[in-house]
Amino acid sequence: MKKVMKIAVLIVMVLAMGVCFTAALSPQSTETAYAAVLKQGSTGSTVKTMQQKLKNWGYYTGAVDGIFGSKTLAAVKYFQRKNGLVVDGIVGAKTFAALGMSSGTSSGTTSSYSDSDLMLLARLIYGEARGESYVGQVAVGAVVMNRIKSSSFPNTMSGVIYQRYAFTAVDDGQINLTPDATAKKAAQDAMNGWDPTYGAIYYYNPATATSSWIFSRTTTVTIGNHVFAK
Q: If you classify domain 33-98 with CATH, what class do you get?
């Protein structure tokens, strides 16, 4: 009888240890949940990073306090609406990507690029898209950044921008215009990882494009007068 009781006690202890081990492997902190989704009620540093980005871009006017409340919800919905996303107030993979954030963390920085790279990108954006919305200007910059990362294009800022016949602004000399503050800010955001195009490496204006080839590319999103494609 004593032997049976000892075995039962051992079984209970093993089960208890298993529960504790599982709990240790599955923390329930809010920060862990950020890897999947942010929504009203979420708190923490990732919410704070998101709030700061939304505030910088004019979508959010509340406190940058790391609390996903009603004002943050409204800002997220506004951002989603302006960027062609599902307007549900939930920050999932696509909204994270549009914000230039990855798995609930802030995006990379421009440390690998020089001030001249930033100015060159700003000049291209100004020459190509100064009449577009702010998101549309960031999108043009994002195409350049996506090309740098693609094996099909040069791997430097100047190499991509000055590639022969790549950009109209280079061909017609508008690349030499002085960019305004908006173009510079758009260049910074694009270099920091904000990609409203969802990975596009091409864009065109369907009203003026003459190449039948470009129409065959897969469209990712349309922003203003530009269609973005892969």
A: mainly alpha
